[in-house]
Records
---
Amino acid sequence: KAPFTGVPGTDKERTFIAIKPDGVQRGLIAAIIARFENKGFKLVALKMLWPTKEKAESHYADLATKPFFKGLVAYFSSGPIVAMVWEGKDAIKTGRVLLGATNPAAAVPGTIRGDLAISVGRNICHGSDGPESAVHEIANWFAPEEVSDYPRSLDEWIVSDN
Ligand code: UDP
Ligand code: MG
């Protein structure tokens, strides 16, 4: 059985996607989820939670030396977030494409940040940037029993190498 963090490089690749506190406040939960659903990815975990400072710090541990780290942790723990795990072929890389560039000013229209945000400090969403961070982030926010492994009959209409 595949680990609950997924198997990068396969159809069971999983990525951690979060709607940050500003995305929740702005009423963009449904709009952001729709991008991933409509694309064809499979939602395998979802919950709303209010991050503690400690959990926000462990989530962003690799950015601890950055000058914006303190403000970033305060931002991420400033209200409830929607934490999700999405599964599918190339979910990590393609998830980042759906989000758009980190700075919404550089994010192209058609992406979530390009369409819905203006400022790098309020860029409404998070997505894992690689296989290692996906594993770390999924385990940081979810317990194994909170992630559902389920078949979807339409998968054959979404993925094929023909
Ligand atoms: N961030 C910021 N100022 C910066 C760079 C990043 O406030 O100059 C914030 C921004 O919210 C970003 C988060 O820190 O989403 C994490 O940075 P990262 O470089 O990992 O960007 P991401 O992976 O979210 O695109
Ligand atoms: Mg990042």
---
Amino acid sequence: MPVSGNLQANMSNGTVEVNSGPEKEQESQVFEPPAEISKNAYVKSLDEYQAMYKKSISDPEEFWKDILADYHFEEKQSDDKPFFNYNFDMNQGPVSIKWLEGAKTNISYNLLDRNVKKGLGDTIAFYWEGNDPKDESKMTYGELLKEVCKFANVLKTLGVKKGDRVAIYMPMIIELPIAMLGCARIGAIHSIVFGGFSADSLADRMIDAQTSVLITSDGVWRGEKIIHLKEISDKAIAKCGDANLDVKHCIVVNHLPRLAVNKVDESTNQSPVKRKQFDYLTPFDETRDKWYHELMEKADDVCTPEWVDAEDPLFMLYTSGSTGKPKGVLHTTAGYMIYAATTFKYVFDYQPGDIYWCTADIGWITGHTYVTYGPLANGATSVIFEGTPFYPTNSRFWDVVDKYKVNQFYTAPTAIRSLMKFGDSFVKECNRSSLKILGTVGEPINPEAWLWYYNVVGDARCPIVDTYWQTETGGHVITPLPGATPSKPGSATFPFFGVVPVLLTEEGKEIEGPGEGYLVFKKPWPGMMRTVYGDHDRFETTYFKRFPGYYFTGDGAKRDNDGYIWITGRVDDMLNVSGHLLSTAQVESALIEHKAVAESAAVAMPHKVKGEALYCFVTLRDGFEFSSQLEGELKLKVREKIGAFAAPEVIQLAPALPKTRSGKIMRRILRKIAVGDSNFGDTSTLADESVIDLLLQHRPETA
Ligand code: WTA
């Protein structure tokens, strides 16, 4: 059953195909928030949500000022500066978004020092659960503050200053948030690259951000496998050198040798990390590379925070762009901090003492906002998990839930779908009674997966928050609140405080009431991106040009009769594989690097577990034959250029591609071929209609 209407639009030629909308039966299936949750929630009813929402729109200053009162600002904003200052309309001048400009703060101070001062020094900030179930550690707010100060001092001694970019390529270990907050403490801008990206992808991002420091680890355990991150880093650094970027320092966490060694020593009550004999020799360049633990040993554990402007950059994070070149999404300090903190508090209804677990990797925005910044801003206790849901067994997620008595659990639809495959027993054999709230993020969740999550994982007593947002939005923008919003499986429901979603027609007209269109936002909220690093023009063209006066998400959405919003998916040349956004151009440019390929076109096809998967068409140069060996080489090429998660599902030979007379590839036709649908609609604009038959003849039987 489709999640909802499938709006496939090709923005360049202006065609929109609207398939069926959410089934009526689905629209009317409503799950009320459980009374148990509503009773103690911050927001207890839909009426209460609506009143708060109204205030956040009619008087944003009053709304956010109440929240700001809890946070530390070294200097308040002066009265002559506007609270919110923005322009979304390119015709009126450059697009700009400023919030609380002139106020001075530091996010690491607010996450750590402020919480320690409040008496949370001995509260656990992070439980760390290793890939191996016997490998674990934990860190209190007091300890984390010291580690962050030490690392900030390490960065200072290496010459890192405010405004410098620092690249981070690390696994899910506590040293990762320490590195992030160490940067933030001195006003350096972190640029984290997900550990699943290839050396080429890492290098491209380092070159774009001009980072002369890289923080990595020797490697990471993923189930039975070890991934040698330092070796990949070395390849990336060499590539940076070719582009005249001198990477002066590479800080390496010695993580691999710590397999299953970490037990608390009863006499000292400490958990020393004993470095076990381990026969892998990490490649090490004595002048450039430094062991993290050696640098930290000598560092002072006090570091005065750098008081930065509310609008000074905090971090950049690359996301796929439709031209194929990733965009460095830039977030600034105060707006991101307050938005991450507020969404975390309300959407997960985090209450003091709760244990929260987000399974996302910190290398993606979900990990930035909902593993590091949001939880720590609230003094929360969370779990950081190195491993995978399938190791050592398919019960691992629920084992970890039981081990730490997790109350809020946040994961992606792709993980849910891949676990569903193994049946209910792996879930049922675990207790899970600690769970209160379940969350999902990253792609539309199909009702079947929603219902399994709700009934099997949550025993039909935990509300599900289906949180819609983007790297660009900084935090949740359309989401239920667990104690307030009756949910409908597959709908992200209503806007968060301060967010004004609008559906637009092709012509840019606002759709009132029920309907389907392009999802845009009419007003800024504190946590939205401010620019594309080093390319403000690209920021404007990507997000503000199509519909002047609005931020365009790139997604389509539908509003039903009750006002619920249903995200229908991307309407641009982007696809979402297991919750990871990829652009078709990025994949095509990887394929074309192979000497056999003359031309390529990648499209999305629905996939049972991944949500979407890549179906690629390749036209070969003269003298090359299509074979399973070539297919393997092409898949490898994509893995090398982008990362393993981007590997195409199907590659088919295309003797020719379907093109319009002006030479544009008609992807609409390719999408139909990918799913085996021969209802091609109007094909009269094709330069050569016989191409379709040729493509059908070459469609692999396995596709
Ligand atoms: C999709 C991830 C439907 C959407 C936080 C968006 C979703 C893109 C949802 C951003 C959801 C994310 N329902 N679709 N709950 N959450 N998306 O930047 O297409 O990695 O534009 O941020 O994921 O992906 P990104």
